[in-house]
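The protein record quoted in full:
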Amino acid sequence: MRKWLFLSAALSLSTFGSLALGSDVRTYQQHPQALAFVDKMVVDHSFDRQALLALFAQAEHKQSIIDAMNRPAEKVKPWKDYRQIFIQEKRIDLGAAFWRKHSDTLDAVEKNYGVDAAIIVAIIGVETYYGRNTGSYRVIDALTTLAFDYPKRSPFFTKELENFLLLSREQAQDPLALKGSYAGAMGYGQFMPSSYRAYAVDYDGDNIVDIWNNPEDAIASVANYFVRHGWQTGQPVAARATAVSGYDNQKFNELEQPTVTLKQHKSAGLAVIGKYPPQLKAMPMKLEGERGDEYWLGFDNFYTITRYNHSHRYAMAVFQLSELIGKRVGRD
């Protein structure tokens, strides 16, 4: 019965909570889409109807979330500016400190999962500054607002809300207490609820998959995500390249599984710097650096990083941060 405790708590608080919220706060206990969602959760997953209604009486509409989602996309920063956001001495230092503090876990996870510890640390560093900034919104508010009051992405966030309630029940967590980003991403590694249920792991064996407060679970969960998305143990991530004069490629920066070999790239005018097997496949990239255009070749592991966040700039920031943190802790 432990998994039902949060629903009982929500029910007991519903009347008092509704009064305390005030008339200017919109909740969801009578929202038509929320009521239809409750029906689905009762039929499909055997949730208690009154407990869910009580929960949605506590879920608040957040206009700031809608505003953030509707905000016109900011101009894409060139690589030289984007890089400065994440490649900073403080982030490198804190990454090295995080590594040293959790070295036993990182060493074991690297051995068991085959994912480079430096990449795991860099992901957590880029996502949440090593757990320092995991988000201030209640996840229930974020997902309910986006599921029922953001039509253009309602199907996606309704599914995430379903997964969130399921994981809350499975992990005996209070859904009114859990916090995350304005989009509902959670924990050290900013997993959406569906990713949490699919990839998060109970590494320390305490029967709770806790990526909010338990760095051991969070570290292993990031590694598991990478394994499940094709990480290749011991293989390179990316390498600098040189291009012949006038070289151009319509496939620059496209996030596709690499299909062209280094040998083929070289024949076309883009040569990798360093010694790599010519049969390795890589995606070509062109980045606007401090000293002009930079050419890179991203291997299969680079593509895997883009499955975490679909951006070649993001993946490059993670890769370069991982290299610098690795050096800081004495990893060649």
User: Anything to note?
Assistant: The chain has 15 helices and six strands.
